[in-house]
Amino acid sequence: MLNTSYTEMLQEKDVIFEIFAYATKRRAEVGAENVFDFSLGNPSVPAPKEVTDAICRITQETDPLALHSYSPAGGIPSVRERIASDLRWRFGVSYEGRHIFMTCGAAAALAHAIRAVTNPGDTVLTFAPCFSEYKPYVEGTGCKLCVVPADTKTFQISFDALEEYLTADVTAVLINSPNNPSGAVYSPSTLQSLSEVLTVKAAAYGHPIFLISDEPYRDILFGRADTTSPAAPGRDNLSSGVQAAYPAALYPDTLTCYSFSKSLSLPGERIGYVAVGPNSPFADRICELLPQVSRTTGHNGAASLLQRVVAECCHLTADLSVYEKNKNLLSEALRSYGYEFVEPDGTFYMFPRSLEPDAKAFCRRAMEMDLMLVPGDGFGCPGHFRIAYCVPTERVEKALPVFKRLAEEYRK
Questions:
Q1: DSSP conformation class of 62
Q2: Which domains are present in the chain?
Q3: Alpha helices by DSSP H, 70-226
Q4: Greatest CA separation found in the chain?
Q5: 299: confidence class by pLDDT, cuts 50, 70, 90
Q6: Interior CA angle at 135 toward 131 and 139, to 5°?
Q7: CB within 8 A of 403, min separation 6: which ones?
Q8: What pTM does this model have?
Q9: How many CB atoms lie within 10 A of CB 10?
Q10: Which 3 state secondary structure label does DSSP give 231?
Q11: Per DSSP, what are the bridge partners of residue 185?
Q12: Is the peptide bond between 233 and the residue preceding it cis, with omega within 30 degrees of 0?
């Protein structure tokens, strides 16, 4: 008998990859230069030279049996210590190596974190707009995902709405800042208020409410004063020279999920980690539980070569400055064409309002012009659309007349 849950998922395929597949088909039909694909969040800048150098040196200098053998369940101890040290330096949180659990990217980190702090039947809250794959991630654990409506004026947390949704069956809150798809970065005051609300509610309900912070875009920031602060001393390799407020520094019961896919432009390598808040009274037990989660999910150990590579390069980033350049080009042009949007503070996404209430219809109309955009419905925010501007700048420049023509069609 075929699995009924996965069979039902066939009716809800990932719209992002469906649009990307259509864009690939159109490139073959009309030429790549005539297709403007802003569907997929795939980094468009190369990994730093230091990453390639590290791969070459490690493969040449490390004994092959040691290099390619299984690593311990939580990761190579020296790697975990190095990442903990980097986090202590950057954010002032007292991580030790035992608090770091290496994973196959951010998705695997989320799979571990959610399972470690929830039980089937619990409710996990997140905030619209949110990554469309959160639904299968959470429901695959046997929990229920509940999406708090968006504050579309700022894309910060709507605390009035949170008050209604934060009921006694909620055992975890999932946040994503910098945010996919809006590009919003939660301000320090937003995160402080969230910490205070969760602390009060956890005491009232008599059980912990864990914060799961999904942070793959942590290093792609544009430096607005009310959302960022100077980076750690000496960390001038960050393109923007700034860092966002760190949720785990404000709320002890935080599990931070990270991927090097965006910061080091390594999406295909699937390497990341869970960082367990060291000041949580549950930290030791969670650290023990995470390897047990691996036994049930099949995520048994991140690649040992990549663990060693990111240990050497975790203080670096790729040259991320192109994303801010692309954002500025799009912001100035789209605003002049009549599009409305909240200015992104990070990531490589924009989330404007669609030029008609039905964002799916709007995106279909854009596709007729070979302009590939993603409707906001799947992100829990109808009436908006996502632009993934992680493309070469010249592609942004060539796409601007198409955005303009699309807007003019609606004004007729």
A1: S
A2: 4-47+319-411 (3.90.1150.10), 50-313 (3.40.640.10)
A3: 77-91, 105-117, 134-139, 159-165, 188-205
A4: 68
A5: confident
A6: 150
A7: 333, 334, 337, 339, 371
A8: 0.95
A9: 7
A10: coil
A11: none
A12: no
